[in-house]
Amino acid sequence: MTRSAFFAADPAAEITRAFRRIEQNQMQGLPVCNDRLTTEIVGLRRFEQYWAGALITPWTLQLILLPATAEAEELAEGDHRTFGFPQGSVVFMASENSDLGVYLACSLMSPLHDFPSQETIKSTAEEVMTLLFQPPTEQPSGESVKVAMPGRLDIEREAKSAEKKSGTRRDFLRGMMK
């Protein structure tokens, strides 16, 4: 089913409802799921012709884009599109959900077994959204982050640096830890 729907108003409730249905039906009891987590959308905001947010489910953390206007590009399931965020380019893949229609997703982490609580994964998702929309002023020179394929960050290190990484969550999210 392909529909050319868009969400003029904040679709947080629709996203949560659609993915909770998946959580409770198709994913219930699967070993890939962290039973301490539940579905939640974090940091949802308008971005160009889309709604952008971090989607937490018991099995994955992903960026998600839903059309916010009729002018948003209509994509077919499986199509890939690159979007330029203040922090850099991110490749998304179109998927389809019977409740949401076609949406775009970029998987960030899966599985999520290392997260001990909803609060911990939510904090991570909030930081992802903050960093995604923050200009890359703090990125060390000689290092760039690019998306090589959907959901996989590829760190291109042009400068060989012997300095030790601090090991902060910010470093982890930027892919700077060795």
Tell me the number of helical segments per DSSP (H or I, 4 or more residues long): 3
Q: How far from one another are the termini?
A: 43 Å
The stretches of 5 or more residues where confidence is low (pLDDT under 50) are 144-166
Question: Compute the gyration radius: what is it?
Answer: 17 Å
Percent range of helical residues: 10-25%
- Fraction in beta strands: 25-35%
Shape summary: globular
Instruction: Sketch the topology as an H/E string, one letter per element.
Output: HEEEEEEHEEH
The total of beta strands comes to 8
Largest sheet, order of strands side by side?
1-2-3-6-5-4
* Average pLDDT rating: 82
Q: What class, by secondary structure content?
A: alpha+beta
| Main sheet record | 6 strands, antiparallel
